[in-house]
Amino acid sequence: MRTSFAALLASVALAGTTLACTSPATAQTVAITGGTVALGDGSAPIPNGTVVFANGRVVAAGAGTAVPAGATVIDARGKWVTPGLVTGPNDLGLLDADGVAESNDVSARTSPFSAGIDVAAVINPLSVAIGNERLGGVTRALVSPGAAGSIFGGQGAVIDLGNDPDPVTRARAFQFVELGEVGGRLAGGSRPAAHAALRDALVQAQDYRRDPAAFDGRTRDALVKRADAQGLLDVIDGKVPLLVHVERASDIRAVLALPRTYPRLKLVLVGATEGWMVAREIAAARVPVIAAALADLPASFEQVGATESNVGLLTRAGVVTGISTIGANDAPGEHVVKQYAGNLVAITRVPGAVGLEWGQAFAAITSRPAEALGMASEIGSLRPGRRADVVIWNGDPLELSSAPEAVWIDGRAQPTRSRQTRLRDRYRTPTEGALPKAYEY
Amino acid sequence: MKRKAWAGAAVSLALVACGGNEAPPRSAGESAGGRAVSTAEKQPAPGRNRGYAHDPFPSTYRPYPGVPTLVRNVTIYDGEGGRIERGSVLFANGKVVALGQSLDAPAGATVIDGTGKWVTPGIIDIHSHLGDYPTPSVQAHSDGNEATDPVTADVWAEHSVWPQDPGFGRALVNGGVTALQILPGSANLFGGRSVVLKNVYARTVQGMKFPGAPYGLKMACGENPKRVYGGRTRRPATRMGNIAVDRATWARAAKYRRDWDNFEANGGKAPDRDIAMDTLRGVLAGEISVQNHCYRADEMAIVLDMAREFGYKVTAFHHAVEAYKIADLLKASNTCAAVWADWYGFKMESYDGIGENLALLHKAGACVTIHSDDENGIQRLNQEVAKALASGRRAGIDVPDAQAWTWLSYGPAKALGIADRTGSLRPGKMADVVLWNGDPFSVYTRPDKVWVDGALLYDASDPKRRPLSDFELGQPGRDPGVALGDVK
User: Fold this and answer.
1) Chain A stretch 355-414, residues whose beta carbon is closer than 8 A to a beta carbon of chain B
2) Same domain? B380 vs B340
3) E runs forming strands in B30-145
4) Which CATH number goes with the domain that contains B370?
5) How far apart are the first and last CA of chain B?
6) Helix (H) or strand (E) holding B410
7) Number of domains in chain B
8) Same domain, residue pair B377 and B459
9) CA-to-CA distance for B39 and B47, rounded, in angstroms?
10) Domain range for B240
11) What is the DSSP letter of B254?
12) Pairing of strands A289-292, A321-324
């Protein structure tokens, strides 16, 4: 059975008009043929490749991949086929508009809870931004609570951006903590206070483990509540990675020392603008980084060493490095990570700068963030067995002119319309016709 | 994780008050009428616009020397919509001399083979806070919003600009930005005067000022002013309060203008000097442009009526994420929209932002330009336009690349009143020129060389031909040649 690309798009568009979009034939085998395939694992793009998925998982992808009998075949000649983008830490599904406080569940300044805060239950998969960003090719996100009442943000989740009611891929996928300038401020005014707060919280968590009944986690003044302690035990035990936001080289060194006390700790550095200055130490500690992609300004005194070559140098040193919108103005949305990745390729042509090869750059927005969380076997690439998050682009996905033409998440075809496309269509001609604009939809 | 350009608004209480009404006119000696104190004595008529100094902080910018330069075998966007394939551009003595299919190099000229490269006019950012919100973004540098009163038409952005902002260098080197307008923030209805700069480091802001560029007045509508002042239980606390304070202020300005026009023409008792009203008088006289922060379509329409009521023109609405909804009204009033490519959803009034804003406005024949409002975005304005172009094309609006370059240089130059001197490669104009190492609408392209007034101020292949601000000197990883190519 061979379905034309246009017909496929039409059927996807149709699915998009009914919000339900109930798992259309996930059991069906789909083969996308003839496109340039980027696996997302760091390898170079493969011309004329094939991607096969079924039951929500990738079966095979690459050159010479056979098309199974009975598969729905989609012709992607002249197009690119890739895994969807994996972005974060960010706030997708936690708010409707950042500046609208009523809608904003990112942080809780006056909450008595800290590390115990868990975003998984409150992700809103129907938030407009999720629909918009899905059309930009983002299929998974590391959704993080922001720290406001303490150095701990709490427990973040990995979500999918699918048009369905169940967004959570992994609840409690990481704990988020601030240990730089922001951490110092939140801890009462200094970095040492932030480190004291972290050490004390980890010690208290162990107190809770030793004797839960004796643990003072319910009184008003308790610094660590029971939920916080449980969240931190998961961190101490290495079950949940600890994402630490730091920028300065010396702060990074201080964080890298933590496993001496807590050997099972799984650290991930976030931001790490001055990471290039301690790249060998980060690599030796086998700590992954989710970096501010293009931060090249001394935006603060913890970022005076900022350079666009940071990600390239970290990668060259052997650090697993993903990129994010952290530190940048993320008002344009999460899909801009692909532009950032493209810029990291661009600087390979600037004398003296250190960037990324194309495959590495694309991995920085697909498999690397997944790998940082220990989820690379699930998401972020088109290697066999991964969740079938597949995007067909009209060209090189890092190029500014390119956009998705079709998106699957867990093997399910996604809508090709969003609230933004509806606004565009309503105002193609700005003036009113026979009736007010409110009647045009 | 999220930063916004107006983030400083709510907290930036200036430590040093600007006593606008007491400030004596610096150039009072030009005429007797320039004295601030009112006297009973009958004074002679000073003559039109001679009652007080209009340019008390004059530009001291001087172009740096260049050599006659011919760039050959390049794709040229002339900035006014024209495109030349495998063409040549010649500039000398700081000015564009010629562009065409093939030009001869004058004796002594530097000849550059630009095969595979592009030449464009330098990018002009009509909305920047470099210098008044410089990096490092510490509280001590939060100089963009005089958020002590909703009407601060008396403040001038140039008095906040720190000429050592590292952002100027990044905008030049990565962004090919050769001129930019620095605006006060949007906390206030009347935010103060803007200043237009050449993107050339100097010890003083006067040394960066674009010679002869008209001033702008920053205004703001919508959420920011009403949030900042409503939160202090004072006017304005609502959108209607915004407009009420605006109109009361314009009414005062109209009287001030009448009084000074009358005095300058007829002499008599000099009116009391009011620095804020000087600026508004300049707007009403057409000497100062209005650069109006405004997101929502309905609010822009109200502002346009208010402008008609008081007889001034809104030159550009900035941010204008809903401009596409009133492209016809903007065209009719000849008002530009200065917008982002794809920012949306970060506050209520940006909820309806779409990537087709530029293309839809262009299609409707309205004036439109890109802008950054961001120290990172200003490094990639060509890429922002590329995204907007692509969104337009996907919606069936096919704007040619060379046309789209008008959104980056000629359009902003017109809206800033400097299009007769820069913004395109017309012979005789300032040689503000970028040589790109490829198609400037590709993500893989960066500036190769940047000239301002014909002086080579960035060369990717020369580690010393790039600026390094005082702040960065001696900082880790900063010195050219020591570390990294993009390190300045």
Assistant:
1) 398-403
2) yes
3) 69-77, 83-92, 95-100, 110-113, 118-121, 123-128
4) 3.20.20.140
5) 26
6) helix B410-416
7) 2
8) no
9) 19
10) 123-418
11) H
12) parallel
Confirm whether B47 is domain-assigned.
no
Question: Does the CB of B114 have a partner CB in chain A at under 8 Å?
Answer: no
Q: Is residue B214 part of a domain?
A: yes
- Same domain, residue pair B310 and B450: no
Q: CA-to-CA distance for A107 and A267, rounded, in angstroms? A: 22
Residue B179 located in a structural domain: yes
Among residues B47, B263, B282, the alpha carbon closest in space to that of B154 is found at B282
**Together in a domain, B227 and B330:** yes
Report whether A363 contacts A315 (CB < 8 A).
no
Q: Which residues contact B314 (CB under 8 A, 6 or more apart)?
A: B290, B292, B303, B304, B307, B333, B335
**A97 touches B at CB < 8 Å:** yes
Tens of pLDDT, residue by residue over A81-117, are 999 999 999 999 999 999 999 999 999 999 999 999 9
Assess contact for A333 and B350: CB atoms under 8 A.
Answer: no
Q: Are residues B200 and B326 in the same domain?
A: yes
Q: What is the Cα A53 distance to its own chain's centre?
A: 22
Alpha helices in A216-309 (DSSP H): 226-236, 249-256, 258-261, 279-284
Domain presence at residue B32: no
pLDDT 10s digits, B391-429: 999 999 999 999 999 999 999 999 999 999 999 999 999
Q: What share of chain B is helix, strand, coil (3-state, %, to 5)?
A: 30, 20, 50
Go through chain B and tell me how many residues it has. Answer: 488
Domains of chain A: 2-83+391-425 (2.30.40.10), 85-379 (3.20.20.140)
The predicted complex's ipTM stands at 0.94
Residue A329's pLDDT band (boundaries 50, 70, 90)? confident
What residues contact B312, with CB distance under 8 A and at least 6 apart? B250, B283, B284, B286, B290
User: Of all residues in chain A, what percent are helix, strand and coil, respectively (each to 5)?
Assistant: 30, 20, 45
Which of A98, A326, A329 is facing B377, going by the closest CB pair? A329
Residues B353 and B468 both lie in one domain: no
Cβ pair A227, A114 in contact under 8 A: no
Cβ atoms B97, B90 nearer than 8 A:
yes
Domain final residue pick, B363, B385, B418: B418
Q: Please identify, among B364, B392, B418, the residue that sits at the C-terminal boundary of a domain.
A: B418
pLDDT digits (tens, 9 = 90+) for B455-479: 999 999 999 999 999 999 999 876 5
Backbone φ and ψ of A13, nearest 5°: -60, -40
Residue ranges of A 278-337 with Cβ closer than 8 A to chain B: 294-301, 303-305, 307-309, 313, 325-333, 336
Amino acid at the residue A342: G
The answer to whether residues B336 and B287 belong to one domain is yes
Which pTM does this prediction carry? 0.93
Contact A401 B441 (CB under 8 A): yes
Same domain, B245 and B337: yes
* H runs (alpha helix) in B267-371: 275-284, 297-310, 327-332, 357-363
Return d(Cα A258, Cα A86) in angstroms, integer.
28
pLDDT band, very low/low/confident/very high, at B313 (cuts 50, 70, 90):
very high
- Looking at CA atoms only, how far is residue B213 from chain A in angstroms? 28
Q: Looking at chain B from residue 337 to 396, which residues have their Cβ under 8 Å from any Cβ of chain A?
A: 340-348, 350-356, 360, 364, 374-377, 379-380, 383, 386-387, 389-391, 393-395
A274 contacts on B by Cβ (under 8 Å): 476
pLDDT tens figures, B183-242? 999 999 999 999 999 999 999 999 999 999 999 999 999 999 999 999 899 999 999 999
Task: Determine the residue type at B409.
Answer: S
